[in-house]
Write a structure and sequence with these properties.
Layout: H1 2-16, E1 19-22, E2 29-32, H2 33-44, E3 50-59, E4 82-91, H3 96-115, E5 119-130, H4 172-179, E6 184-187, E7 196-202, E8 205-215, H5 221-237, E9 244-253
Parallel strand pairs: 2-9, 4-5, 8-9
Antiparallel strand pairs: 1-2, 3-4, 6-8, 7-8
Helix pairs in contact: 2-3, 4-5
Length: about 260
């Protein structure tokens, strides 16, 4: 039974893809590659003459990264520049270079203004030309397009989280506080366990809170995550005076 549970957890993690940093080293926020791709895919579906086939988001090779100010989720990428790689079919009725440039501009703008991803490059590959009603670039729903395959699993590990905080008891209050932040649709736990996890150390006394959540469509993801971090940190510090940090992992973006 234990082996089966571990395999299910691994399969779930593979589906989430990389854990990508949002913002800079002080923002303490990450998003699953799956959630980021789905959000960008919805935006790119409206680009005329473009039909997305696949998308990946990852670090830019050989570019420097920064140490995050708070403890990252297990396996998360450190803050640094990111690159989007996408494959698409173009329309026979529109020049491919024009469509590709519009797609690149759309992805860069959405990554910055809607998500908060520090994306510096977009590499595009044209796989084919299509014709028919879709060639006019009519919007497609996220459900009607083929989502990218499962991604590689992150490898870095961290200290396991506890389900309760021995310094202040059950963490139900933190769940309520995080859930009440505008823009949070719900808390999530895609790999099982609890959506709010607390780790602690004794020497010196310190505590870290990790929150997993989904963000509503139309909200800037990084701004919502910052608000969640502030809210849970204040709530935790109001009871016991222990240095507290918080991080957020966005696992879903609601359509």
């Amino acid at each position: 039974m234990k082996t089966e549970a571990l395999m299910q957890s691994a399969r779930g993690r593979l589906g989430l893809g990389r854990l990508l940093p949002l913002g800079g080293p002080d923002d303490g926020t990450w998003i699953t590659e799956q959630a980021a791709v789905r959000a960008l895919w919805r935006t790119a579906a409206g680009v005329p003459g473009v039909r997305l086939e696949s998308m990946r988001i990852g670090p830019v090779p050989h570019e420097p990264v920064l140490e995050p100010a708070v403890r990252p989720p297990a396996g998360a990428l450190p803050p640094g520049p990111l690159s989007i790689e996408a494959a698409f079919t173009g329309s026979v009725t529109l020049p491919v270079p024009q469509a590709a440039e519009q797609l690149r501009t759309t992805l860069l703008k959405a990554a910055d203004e809607e998500l908060g991803l520090r994306t510096v490059t977009v590499d595009l590959r044209v796989t084919d030309l299509h014709e028919g009603p879709e060639a006019d670039g009519g919007p497609q729903t996220a459900e009607s397009v083929r989502t990218p395959p499962s991604q590689e699993a992150p490898t870095r590990s961290s200290t396991p989280a506890t389900e309760t905080d021995p310094l202040r008891g059950p963490i139900g209050e933190l769940v309520d506080v995080a859930s009440a932040v505008p823009g949070v649709t719900r808390l999530t736990a895609p790999l099982g366990g609890h959506p709010v996890k607390v780790t602690h150390q004794d020497d010196p006394p310190a505590r870290h809170i990790q929150v997993q959540l989904a963000v509503a469509s139309g909200r800037h993801l990084l701004e919502v995550a910052r608000a969640v971090r502030d809210a849970v940190t204040v709530a935790a510090a109001s009871d016991v005076r222990v240095p507290t940090t918080a991080s957020v992992l966005i696992t879903e973006t609601a359509a």
